[in-house]
Every structure is written in C-alpha cells, then in structure tokens.
C-alpha cells in the first residue's frame, strides 16, 4: 500500500492569519498517528509564512513513531536548522517568495552543485534526502548522480491538467519516471495538488511508495475533522 505523509502547513497558515497561537499545527501530529497515516510533513519557508521555528522544534519532540519530513530550500540557514533538529527526512524544494505554493520541481540540472552540497551535508549526518523534482528522465538520472536517497515526483502538472487527454499524458510521465527512479535504486515518492478526486491513479503506480498531501486533507478537515479526513484519504490509498 502507498503510505501517506500529511502536510500540516495549512493549519499553521490559519494560525498565522491572526498571528495568534491557535490552531496549533503540532497537535495535528497526534491525530495523524491516531488516524493511521505514516508521516508528518512540514515546510519551513524562508519567510516563515506558516510553519515557525518553534513548530519545528516541537514536531521533532513529539513525532517519534512516524516519519518527520521537513521540506526546505537549499540555503545555509535551512541546512543548519536541519542538521540541528534532525528530521527523519529532508525534501529539498525550490522556493520563491512571491509564489502561493511550491511552483515546479527543484532545478537540479542548473543548480547541481548547490543541490549536491546540500545532499552531502544532510547525508553526512544521516538524514535521508529527497529531491522534489519534475517527472523527466534526465532529471531523475541527475537526482541519482547527486546522491539523493529519494525523489518526490511533482504531481502538480497532473493535478492541473485541464482535460482527460492531458491528464492521461501527465499520468504516463509519472508512471514512466517512477519506474525509472525505482530502477535506479531511488525511493520514489510523489505529491502536490493531489485531492480525493485525483489521487487514485497516482496511488496505484506501484513504484510510488508514499504520497505527501496537504491542502486537500486540511480543506476537508475543516468540515469533517482531521482524523476523519485522513482516514478517508487512507481508504482511497488502500483501494
Ligand atoms: N510535496 C511538496 C514538496 C510540497 O511542497 C507540497 C506543498 O507544500 C506538497 C507535497 C503538498 O501539496 P498539497 O498541499 O497541494 O497537497
């Protein structure tokens, strides 16, 4: 079965809308465990628009049974933070201040050296390192060359496809590049823009071991509660 990492950034987004102390995203970690999901994902952004440093420290203290996956940019500040906090996994992502959410995968072709340095720094201290990348063969091969343990295939184009034909094309790209990644010995994950409506075709790609899903789960949680929202997503992943 494909495992599920739940991205809790959007709980922090609600808190930061008022710069208050509720809702606390850290409490979400307990619900994720209770609901039977497999990981907690958070993105500490340079501008601290949602997750704060305090959250990261607390998450590390409370997430002991599940995987704590920290999404971050390849900056010195973030690398220092990661090697101090020691999440179970770091996912390196591109980051632009003006973007609403992560746009596109990390450019590991043109910024190979920066990514390589970050991967080396993280691996030296024993943090599993994943690269959030677009599903193209040359990018997958480059991820392998740079020494990543895992790749997270960006499903944004699939999720944004306007019609059935382009959705099918995007799905095929995901399938083929998941196969390539697995053949190269990389752990293959996927995520971004996945919803209750579009997740199934991605979840049945055999090489994809884990999905990271945030916005759709938290949106549903507003009405049905976080535990039920996660359980409903898990039920889809079980098929
Ligand atoms: N994976 C990565 C690398 C991301 O940056 C995000 C968004 O923070 C997600 C997965 C989750 O995307 P969504 O919130 O659209 O489910």
Low-confidence stretches: none
Report the CATH superfamily. Aldolase class I
Q: How many distinct domains?
A: 1
Assembly context of the chains: single chain
Q: What is the number of strand segments?
A: 8
Helicity level: 40-55%
Do you know the CATH topology?
A: TIM Barrel
Our measurement of the CA-to-CA distance between the termini, rounded to an integer number of angstroms, reads: 9 Å
How many distinct helices? 11
| N-to-C SSE string, H for helix and E for strand | EHHEHEHEHEHEHHEHEHH
Q: Strands across the major sheet, in which order? A: 1-2-3-4-5-6-7-8
Structural class: alpha/beta
Mean pLDDT: 96
Q: What general form does the structure show?
A: globular
**Biggest pleated sheet:** 8 strands, parallel, barrel
Instruction: Please write the CATH class name.
Output: Alpha Beta
Give the C-alpha Rg.
17 Å
Which small-molecule species are bound to the chains here? Answer: pyridoxine-5'-phosphate
Which CATH architecture?
Answer: Alpha-Beta Barrel
Strand content: 15-25%
Function: Catalyzes the complicated ring closure reaction between the two acyclic compounds 1-deoxy-D-xylulose-5-phosphate (DXP) and 3-amino-2-oxopropyl phosphate (1-amino-acetone-3-phosphate or AAP) to form pyridoxine 5'-phosphate (PNP) and inorganic phosphate.
Binding site for 3-amino-2-oxopropyl phosphate: 7, 18, 193, 214-215
Catalytic activity: 3-amino-2-oxopropyl phosphate + 1-deoxy-D-xylulose 5-phosphate = pyridoxine 5'-phosphate + phosphate + 2 H2O + H(+)
Pathway: Cofactor biosynthesis; pyridoxine 5'-phosphate biosynthesis; pyridoxine 5'-phosphate from D-erythrose 4-phosphate: step 5/5
